[in-house]
Specification:
The complex is a heterodimer of chains A (160) and B (381). Chain A is α/β, with parallel strands linked by helices. Helices cover 33% and strands 20% of the residues of chain A. The longest helix of chain A is centred in the last third of the chain and has 24 residues. Chain A is globular, with a radius of gyration of 15 Å. Chain A starts with a strand and ends with a helix. In chain B, α2 packs antiparallel against α12, α4 crosses α6 and α6 packs parallel to α9. Chain B is globular, with a radius of gyration of 21 Å. Chain B has a single domain, classed as Cytochrome-c3 Hydrogenase, chain B. Chain B is α+β, with helices and mostly antiparallel strands and 381 residues long. Chain B contains 12 helices and 10 strands. Classes of the chains: A alpha/beta (160), B alpha+beta (381). At the A-B interface, α2 and α3 of A face α1, α2, α3 and α4 of B.
Chain lengths: 160, 381
């Protein structure tokens, strides 16, 4: 059985740009007709590890999307291949005050539970205050992010 | 701090469940506008949500944040290299807490399904039933963990504290009760601000809470345990005994044992609730806004969380006060550090920094997930 493609949008819609990952995942949902599984999660580490855990022995090909806070210009899009490099902890620790994406990826790596294909997209946020609106730079960058994600899915499909 | 406050607000269900005396007597009392039986069933769903939250939070803290300190690892990722099975078990335990919170709260953190008067939707008995075998596994795993935490090496550090926690005649406190202490405090929640005050201190951005006239006080698992141990289920009391925890404990480092015991209790209590569960006929009671003031206090995993809201006739919140547990423990954390450093000046700066971070993590403050957060410099004369 071919590996399933799993897209996980991460964040909190009620915290400004923190919702960017979820919004991007929803955009993909409305524009992707292929057999792609799309999930929305809050970013809690154990839940992420559970979501990408192998089902019936088959490990999914995973794309994660989250807002990040690295100091880059708001709206900047980052792409990381988790198979090739560790995730900088400073990147993905805004959205929860607990055990978050970077720790989940690195812990899964140590435990031998990291899917071999995992691409992480980050979009630099500007405003994480309570409220539901994206900041202008993030809203402007979102279509480009969705385009890139669609290309990424095409490439994953082709590599199956 | 801001993040922790927001998190806890989302969990807070009781904003309108208490009244004040006199002309402001408000009819936001849930019990007065529904049958006591229905209100009790909604109370039970809240209690179940708290069980899930406690399992999530304590498992994270015990295994992933605090155990690495005790065992000499910089973080859980390094710990997992040597003890993969321990970490996998922790993740499985946490997952069950997540499942419970997701089912009741709508998502695994920052629940969105809670509202004034109850919930937007409550689960059916059939939806909850599959959780029973998982919770039984979790209860057994938590009971095995408690003795393990008891074998850790604890600094000799007993202090004289005033412990403050909720207390309830029938249950280990989560969502309601009176505020009590080991020094004779026994007040209704609405009297909180008569007895406790938040102050600015010159050297810090964090507000410090103080018990008027006496100063620092201790909230959280150790306070809850010391004041309510007799309300734990027999199984949780056995777990405490197996871990070598007495009925009273004054060593804050042993909070890790109390968290393990409370995790076992939360699993046990969740099983009891689910087995007896009858879905409330309505997920929430109807609440008509009236001018007045509502008070509430819950036991968050980190300790008591106090809320007070003043409403106008339309239900608009005119002003609010939220006092999270971390700010209530601020003074105690600083006092512990002062005593701990004084006792251990012979250690190297590096060693002492590590042990001070461990001492701060006893309180599971919001910063405790930051593994290396403390800058320490000793000026030796």
């Amino acid at each position: 059985m071919a590996a399933q493609i799993l897209v996980i949008g991460i964040g909190n819609l009620y915290r400004g740009d923190d919702g960017a990952g979820i919004i991007a995942a929803r955009e993909l949902k409305s524009r992707t007709c292929r057999q792609v599984r799309i999930l929305e999660l809050a970013g809690e580490g154990a839940a992420l590890m559970d979501a990408w855990h192998a089902q019936d022995g088959a490990q999914p090909m995973v794309i994660l999307i989250d807002a990040i806070s690295s100091g880059a210009a708001p709206g900047t899009i980052f792409r990381l291949d988790a198979g090739e490099q560790p995730v900088p902890v400073s990147f993905f620790n805004y959205s929860t005050h607990a055990f978050s994406l970077a720790e989940a990826v690195e812990l899964a790596r140590v435990l031998g539970e990291l899917p071999p294909h995992m691409i992480i997209y980050g979009i630099e946020g500007q405003n994480y205050a309570a409220g539901s609106a994206l900041s202008a730079p993030v809203a402007q960058a979102l279509p480009q992010l969705v385009q890139q994600l669609k290309r990424e899915i095409d490439e994953m499909e082709a590599s199956k | 701090m801001a993040v922790a406050g927001a998190v806890d607000i989302a969990y807070f269900p009781e904003a309108t469940s208490a009244t004040v005396k006199g002309p402001y007597d408000i009819s936001l009392v849930e019990g007065s506008i529904t049958t006591p039986h229905d209100a009790e069933r909604i109370h039970t769903v809240r209690r179940l949500l708290y069980c899930g939250e406690l399992i999530e939070s304590h498992t994270l803290h015990v295994y992933m944040l605090h155990a690495p300190d005790f065992l000499g690892y910089p973080d859980v990722i390094q710990l997992a290299k040597d003890f993969p099975e321990v970490v996998k078990r922790a993740l499985a335990l946490k997952k069950i807490g997540n499942e419970l919170v997701t089912l009741l709260g709508g998502r695994e953190i920052h629940p969105i399904n809670v509202r004034v008067g109850g919930f937007y939707r409550v689960p059916t008995k059939q939806e909850l039933a599959p959780l029973i075998p998982k919770l039984e596994w979790a209860r057994d795993a938590a009971c095995e963990t408690a003795p393990f935490t008891g074998t850790l090496s604890f600094p000799d550090f007993e202090q004289d504290y005033e412990y403050v926690a909720l207390s309830h005649p029938d249950e280990y406190p989560f969502n309601e009760g009176r505020l009590v202490s080991n020094r004779g405090l026994d007040i209704a929640i609405r009297e909180y601000e008569d007895h406790f005050v938040e102050e600015h201190v010159k050297y810090s951005n964090a507000l410090h809470s103080s018990h008027k006239g006496t100063g620092a006080y201790f909230v959280g698992p150790l306070a809850r345990y010391n004041l309510n141990v007799d309300k734990l289920s027999p199984l949780a009391q056995q777990a405490a005994q197996a871990a070598g925890l007495g009925r009273v404990c004054h060593n804050p480092f042993k909070s890790i044992i109390v968290r393990a015991v409370e995790t076992a209790y939360a699993c046990d209590e969740a099983i009891r609730i689910i087995k007896a569960y009858e879905a409330p006929p309505k997920p929430a009671v109807t609440v008509e806004p009236h001018a007045g003031t509502g008070y509430g206090c819950t036991e968050a995993p980190r300790g008591i969380l106090y809320h007070r809201y003043r409403l106008d006739d339309h239900g608009t919140i005119l002003d609010a006060r939220i006092v999270p547990p971390t700010s209530q423990n601020q003074k105690i954390i600083e006092r512990d550090l002062y005593h701990y450093v004084t006792q251990n000046l012979h250690l190297s700066e590096e060693q002492l920094t590590r042990e001070c971070e461990q001492a701060i993590r006893n309180y599971d403050p919001c910063i405790s997930c930051a593994t290396h957060f403390l800058k320490l410099h000793i000026e030796r004369e």
